[in-house]
Amino acid sequence: MKTGISASRIEELVRYRRKIHSLPELKYEERETANYVTSHLKSLGYSFEENIAETGIVCLVDSGIPGNTVLVRADMDALPILEENHVDYRSIVDGKMHACGHDGHTSVLMGLSSELKESLKSFVPKGRVLLCFQPAEEGGSGADKMIESGILDRYKVDACFALHVWNHIDLGKLGVVNGTMMASVDEFHIIVKGTSGHGAMPQHTVDPIVVGSHIVTALQTIVSRNVDPLEPCVVTVGSFHSGNAFNVISETAELRGTVRTYSKDVYEKVPKRLEEIVRGIASSFGADIDFEYKRVDKPTINDPSMADIVREAGKNILGPDSITEENTRTMGGEDFSAFLMEKPGCYFFIGSRNEKKGFVHSHHSSFFDFDEDALANGLSVMKEVIRLYLEKN
Fold it and tell me: Structure pTM?
């Protein structure tokens, strides 16, 4: 392994990460994090655009030689989780925590800005690099908001890349796949409207709990009977609430859930089928329905040629046996998918699991933490990705 990152830079990465980790901010609230980033960019003498999609920042670094423009993204937001780790840099904000690694991603991009300033010509042979510090990845569609602001057109972006530290892959490994890597994230909200009454006289009611129960069961047939068995798809009802007394049939039942899909075809097909099932069952029982279906994130689909660049970069930096697809595809979602729908690019995982040090907890856990050696690996690989992409394009 030859990261080529100096000891002083590695110390900086850790310092950035721990500072951000201790002061987590939720989606669209990342003011202090953004201020920390812009202060760093100012210290390097960069010009930048801020307050994009509330708290987002972009900084263009130009080699001065005509060529393509590559966007590199880091997400800045934390999660509404009470941290249970006992480390010096633990969150000092009750109920908020960097439980997914976004503090690491932001630190890597800050480190990249320093590397660009100090050694631009060594890995940017031509073209431009657009550093993108994004808010609200965790359910806030921050990527979509930044795209809506026009940054892709305004900065003439040709390709885009992002990394994610990943505790399901060992330190020193790099996870990347062609095509779909992460699922879409959709959310549905159903209110079943029945007729309330006495629990001992159900014949005078339309019981929304019974209707809702049939809906929960029937929705499972979408995956088993409406989707190709070779196509990944998940339909989950995660919340079901109705009533508050043992002898009363309530008037309404409320169901909330999520749909996860991989392919564009299934992504388009499932919402219509889900609504058909819900309304059909409700009608058969004489109930009414309020139905809402919300698109949160699209499938994260890597361009194969861009994934090849990431593989080559990973092999060059982490070694020929570093590339893996094991524990890489997931039904989790990622809003970088919005960038990949607009421009060719690749989203990849930097292994951050280290069982010997106890860095084994999953993302979104209150005990989540990762091996900070992954920061230097991520920075070095991303530098090589940029070099290879701009060299080839």
Answer: 0.94
